[in-house]
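Narrative of activities, Objective 1.

The group set out to show that a structural description can be obtained from nothing but a protein's sequence at a throughput compatible with the screening campaign. Below is one input-output pair from the validation batch, recorded exactly as produced.
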Amino acid sequence: MPKLTKRFVETVEPSTKAIVLFDEQVTGFGLRIMPSGVRSYFVQYRSQDGRSRWFTIGTHGRVTAEEARKRARQILAEVTQGKDPAADRDTSRQMPTISDLLDRYLIEHVDKQNRPRTRNEVKRMVRLFIRPPLGRYKVEAVARSDLARLHHSLSSTPRQANHVLSVCSKVFGLAEIWGLRPDGSNPCRGIERYREEHRERFLSQDELERLGSTLHLAETKGLPWSVDEHKPTAKHLPKPENRRTLYPHVIRAAIELLLFTGCRLSEVLGLKWKQVDFAAGTIVLAETKAGRTQHVVMSDSARQVLKSLAEGAHSEWVLARRNDDSRPMSKETLEKAWQRIRAIAGVSDVRLHDLRHTFGTYAGQTGANTYVIRDALRHKTVAMTARYVNRADDPIRLLSNQVGERIASSLAGRARDVVVPLRRGSLPPRAP
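Output recorded for this entry:
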């Protein structure tokens, strides 16, 4: 038996059959040369139960003869301790990868437990952010450093980064339940989330007036195009007075419903006529963020918008597509129209979801009880509603002015027994 060295390994010519050569120094350490010329190092041993095992170390070129000999000695040392490296490697190869775990997570949890909108968002995050960097790893091999690296890679979008980390935490939590990782080994634990900027934008009275005028213009005369007169193709455009886009009434109605009901965008777009009860003055929402049936009380303004849509309606959808009333208006259609409407109205930073914030803010400024506003917005807790109540500073300002006036009068030596009456409803709501 020769000593396996680089020079010797490269001088042996391939044959029509595989050639197996053993090293003279390390028992069991050998070289296999395939007819194709591929040379690979291995170590052969017997396990504790007497079975002959073959452990491939690596191919020549990627691994040197000395490196392979050193690895062979390590493997044989493990065997003397009662281990079976080849069996352990086979077991590891059969263990599921993160990609396998994600497939199971989507089928057994997301598709069954989450609402359609959440399902789509989770699948998007899995496809774009989680599967590419982690999919090939074994479930049991992923460490906290891997998740910290993934979280940091999305630091430019803190909210997105935190959502991805939350999904990963759920995935590894299920892996523990399914017996794929030890209990308490979730690698997401201890990773600090990024601070998120919670954007609370609502429309002022002046902005609402401009928006109302723009909606009326969009439906009657149309909104002017945005055209670069310096482009060569601009000369082929219609005359300036004809460069207008007329928007159907359903666009205006959708925006007004968001303002008058405080509903979420998905709730308005998915609304069917069977959910609208004009007699009771309510809208019944079956698919909600809370996961249960909820009722929205119609205001007179919302009722008027709905009745304008009901006249001559032939679709089951309240906001039906213009050219296909068998389907509801798409989010993309309304978003595209909103981009133009908000630009003309001078509120370019206002999103469609900010119309719900506007409803909540104006509700808070009425001085109404926190619990009433919570029910109007269908929040789970009053903590979510408090941001609107806290923003309602008009009643508090009135109270402060009246108290300050009385104190100032006393300091100035004016009549101290004058009590300034407060308007009904001007006191701030009590803290829950």
